[in-house]
């Protein structure tokens, strides 16, 4: 009877030691994973020295629009436009962007949705052209054209806007494709009035086209 009691007493001790061993090896495994990810991050930061990709607007073309006038004073426009961007990548790694949708805001109000297709930026590239679709559901043109414009140092009239959205990117280093990451985009941008010429064109032309 006494030996039986000792056996029952030793079994919980063995289970406790087994659980402690599992927790120890699990902790070591997690530590190795965290260390590997940390070393990979340090490698990217200190060796590759990543820089921000640069995007610039080449052309903005109005494809279709529809005008609506309310109370003979307020003009609203719904439009579809094509915007061609030039993308430059000064980094040592390639960047593959997944298709995404960005929101354009003016004075806190949604103005347009920009559909960005998937594309690839090779390392040290500066001549990648990208065509995006700009969807303007309903914008008060009268308010925009008659709003309080800001002026830059050259005296040009500009309008401040905010661009936001999520972008998914894969990093390509030599022949290795790193896991996909998600970047939250939230930046302030400014457009010169001449870059918004398609709104002025829609405002002046009388016979509106049908919106595609």
Descriptive overview:
With 212 residues, the chain is of the alpha+beta class. The protein folds into two domains: 1-49; 54-204. The chain has helices spanning 2-48, 141-145, 197-204; strands at residues 54-70, 74-89, 94-97, 100-106, 109-116, 119-121, 125-140, 150-151, 157-173, 176-177, 181-192. A hairpin with a 2-residue loop joins strand 9 and strand 10 (176-177). The longest helix is centred in the first third of the chain and has 47 residues, at 2-48. The radius of gyration is 28 Å and the shape is elongated. The relative contact order is 0.16. Residues 5-9 and 206-212 have low confidence and may be disordered.
Task: Name the descriptors.
alpha+beta, 2 domains, 11-stranded antiparallel beta sheet, elongated, disordered C terminus, membrane, transmembrane helix, transmembrane, LEA_2, Late embryogenesis abundant protein LEA-2 subgroup domain-containing protein
The gist of it:
The protein is an alpha+beta fold and 212 residues long. It is built from 3 helices and 11 strands, in the order H-E-E-E-E-E-E-E-H-E-E-E-E-H. The protein folds into 2 domains: 49 residues; 151 residues.
């Amino acid at each position: 009877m006494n030996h039986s009691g000792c056996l029952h007493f030793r079994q919980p001790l063995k289970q406790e030691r087994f659980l402690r061993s599992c927790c120890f090896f699990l902790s070591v495994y997690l530590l190795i994973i965290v260390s590997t990810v940390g070393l990979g991050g340090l490698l990217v930061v200190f060796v590759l020295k990543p820089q921000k990709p640069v995007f610039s607007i080449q052309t903005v073309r109005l494809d279709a629009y529809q005008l609506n006038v309310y109370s003979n004073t307020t003009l609203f426009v719904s439009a579809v436009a094509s915007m061609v961007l030039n993308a430059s990548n000064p980094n040592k790694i390639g960047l593959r962007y997944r298709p995404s949708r960005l929101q354009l805001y003016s004075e806190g109000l949604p103005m347009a949705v920009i559909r960005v297709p998937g594309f690839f930026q090779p390392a040290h590239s500066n001549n990648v052209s990208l065509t995006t679709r700009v969807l303007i559901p309903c914008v008060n043109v009268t308010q925009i054209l008659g709003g309080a414009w800001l002026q830059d140092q050259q005296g040009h009239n500009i309008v401040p806007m905010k661009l936001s959205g999520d972008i998914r990117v894969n990093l390509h280093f030599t022949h290795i494709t790193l896991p996909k990451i998600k970047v939250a985009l939230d930046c302030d941008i400014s457009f010169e009035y001449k870059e918004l010429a398609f709104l002025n064109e829609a405002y002046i032309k009388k016979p509106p086209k049908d919106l595609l």
